[in-house]
């Protein structure tokens, strides 16, 4: 039996950012079921930091996190954690009210410019504008395209530097509480114990709670699909913005010499190794051709990932009142990367007593008391 002060189940961005924040307070061991970190949601995202998703809760956590990406702690990474990409949200004539509402919603968090058809084309010449197409937009020139690989590796390094351990290929199959200790067994038959167990198992967080004999909170994993395809020949698309419809129908952006796009699908799914379905792949191509002048002649690659939401769509970070030492860190939905810095510090505060990091969000708002009796 290996003993630690804190065991964390899940080597995605949630588990690893919490691990690096907690590692200076005691011995932290992260157990990841896959052979590599970030294999599931954290390695399959659109990798953006922007304010056009979520609500004031998500936007506040995002705003309080962005400093970490712009200026990571000394020694955290040798490469930038992201680079600036403008974020353009566009609307048809019949969507102008929604665009105005979004403008009002984001204005507290980011500096926005309004653009007309000409401005839309200056930013993204492929947009279909005018009759039946986009007529107006808002742009935030300070979006960030994140580098999840650099983020995950930075946290792993910080964890190890502080004496913590990451065990990959360590899928947890049983959990029991003996006295004040949580005892965990992996499928390989290894045993770990600690007085604090952090459940950062992403889409599997409800299943992990059940392993511990606890109630689920009712998480919903929703599948989202991304395709990549060639941009127009002889056109440098690298400076195009992350471009999104005001309704959640389509986004696309430059991706390593090509373009990526998502139909923003939200297909309810059981926790799994998510795979793209033909329907959503075709829908992505269809919506690109509907909203732009681009042709999707050949799909270069495709993938899908799970965005896992709590019942009120706000993430959960807090102890389970029904089981001493059992801590939930789940339900990051479609914003788990861009909010991870401040959320990790909230976890550090709740578990290790560090100062509360957020002026906008209280511990009660993250607590799971809102779901469990
Ligand atoms: C298509 C798509 C686009 C997205 N775009 C963005 C975006 O632009 N910006 C943004 O901020 N977020 C985005 N997200 C959301 C973001 O990716 C997630 O919120 C975030 O990755 C969740 O991190 P996690 O650590 O909770 O989950 P995961 O990365 O899934 O990590 C959970 C880990 O737990 C492990 N695990 C589960 N059960 C066990 C067990 N029994 N034993 C051991 N290990 C276990 C799993 O193997 C997994 O590695 C997007 C997601 C998708 C799918």
UniProtKB/TrEMBL annotation:
SUPFAM superfamilies: FAD/NAD(P)-binding domain. The keyword S-adenosyl-L-methionine does not apply. It holds the Pfam family DAO. It comes from the Bacteria. PANTHER family: FAD-DEPENDENT OXIDOREDUCTASE DOMAIN-CONTAINING PROTEIN 1, SARCOSINE DEHYDROGENASE-RELATED. This is FAD-binding oxidoreductase. Residues 5-347 form the FAD dependent oxidoreductase domain. Keywords: Oxidoreductase.
């Amino acid at each position: 039996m290996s003993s630690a002060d804190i065991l964390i189940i899940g080597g995605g961005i949630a588990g690893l950012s919490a691990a690096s924040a907690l590692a200076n307070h005691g011995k932290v061991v992260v157990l990841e079921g896959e052979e590599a970190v970030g294999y599931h949601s954290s390695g399959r995202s659109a990798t953006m930091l922007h304010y056009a998703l979520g609500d004031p809760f998500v936007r506040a956590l995002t705003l309080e996190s962005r400093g970490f990406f712009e200026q990571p702690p000394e020694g955290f990474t040798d490469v930038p954690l992201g680079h600036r990409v403008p974020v353009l949200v566009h609307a048809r004539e019949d969507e102008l009210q929604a665009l105005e509402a979004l403008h009002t919603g984001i204005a507290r968090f980011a500096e926005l410019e309004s653009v007309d058809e000409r401005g839309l084309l200056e930013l993204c010449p492929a947009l279909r504008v005018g009759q039946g197409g986009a007529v107006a937009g808002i742009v935030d020139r300070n979006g960030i395209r994140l580098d999840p690989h650099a983020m995950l590796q930075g946290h792993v390094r910080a964890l190890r530097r502080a004496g913590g351990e990451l065990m990959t290929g360590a899928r947890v199959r049983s959990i029991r509480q003996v006295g004040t200790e949580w005892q965990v067994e992996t499928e390989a038959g290894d045993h770990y114990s600690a007085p604090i167990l952090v459940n950062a198992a992403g889409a599997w967080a409800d299943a992990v709670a059940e392993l511990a004999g606890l109630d689920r909170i009712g998480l919903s994993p929703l599948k989202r699909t991304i395709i990549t395809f060639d941009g127009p020949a002889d056109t440098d698309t690298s400076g195009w913005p992350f471009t999104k419809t005001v309704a959640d129908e389509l986004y696309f952006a430059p991706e390593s010499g090509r373009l990526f796009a998502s139909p923003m699908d939200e297909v309810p799914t059981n926790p799994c190794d998510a795979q793209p379905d033909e329907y959503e792949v075709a829908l992505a191509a269809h919506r690109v051709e509907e909203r732009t002048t681009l042709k999707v002649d050949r799909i270069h690659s495709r993938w899908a990932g799970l965005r896992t939401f709590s019942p009120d769509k706000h993430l959960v970070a807090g102890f389970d009142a029904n089981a001493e030492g059992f801590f939930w860190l789940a339900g990051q939905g479609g914003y788990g990367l861009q909010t991870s810095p401040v959320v990790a510090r909230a976890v550090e505060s709740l578990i290790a007593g560090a100062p509360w990091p957020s002026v906008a969000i209280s511990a009660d708002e993250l607590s799971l008391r809102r779901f469990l009796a």
